[in-house]
Design a protein that fits this description.
- It is a single chain.
- The chain has a 7-stranded mixed beta sheet with strand order 3-2-1-4-5-7-6.
- It contains 6 helices and 7 strands.
- The chain is α/β, with parallel strands linked by helices.
- It is about 30% helix and about 20% strand.
């Protein structure tokens, strides 16, 4: 049965707007990539909801094999400018077009709050990642910028979802304007 994807909470801005310097500072691009690299020591990554590729590009610069998906064709087109070697595909996070355990790491940056089905998205991330899942998102309790609080990830809800799915509890790393959840899968 084919399930219609609604993507009601999807980011609607341009690919270029995702590449602004202030966004990289806000998302703690380099510290997040450092933490993810030190935690999981990946050789390959699937960037789920890759957008215009800020994180994909940084992972690639560090020698990782990078693949990714996004539901927005404009994002996939834009990412090819920044990471032409990347295997980037149009696909929802809930149905990844990759085989089981294809990657060491499944990475999501500011996307879990946008998907139609968070449970299915986490199941798919676990399916394709042999070492871990890293989720970067807006803090739940500090609404400085980003989506409304009603769609943000509540840490306790994510913990409960991980327990329900048989995943390890996430390590939580808080930054000023972002939160990183690190979930081992291996």
């Amino acid at each position: 049965m084919l399930v219609e994807q609604k993507h009601e909470n999807r980011y609607s801005g341009s690919p270029e707007s995702l590449r602004r310097r202030w966004r990289n500072r806000m998302s703690n691009l380099l510290p997040v990539v450092d933490k993810v690299m030190n935690t999981f020591e990946p050789q390959s990554v699937c960037d789920i909801g890759c957008g215009s590729g800020n994180f994909s590009e940084e992972f690639y610069k560090r020698g990782l094999t990078v693949s990714g998906v996004d539901v927005n064709p404009k994002m996939i087109e834009a990412i090819q400018k920044y990471v032409p070697e990347m295997n980037a595909r149009i696909s929802p996070a809930e149905k990844l077009p990759f085989d089981d355990k294809t990657f060491d790491l499944a990475f999501m940056s500011f996307v879990l709050h946008e998907v139609d089905d968070q449970t299915q998205t986490l199941l798919e991330a676990r399916r394709v990642a042999s070492k871990g899942i890293a989720i970067l998102d807006f803090p739940y309790d500090r609404v400085l910028l980003g989506p409304p609080k009603r769609v943000r990830i509540h840490p306790e809800k994510l913990r409960a979802l991980c327990l329900h799915l048989g995943l390890a509890l996430p390590e939580i790393v808080e930054y000023q304007k972002a939160v990183l959840y690190l979930i081992p899968t291996g």
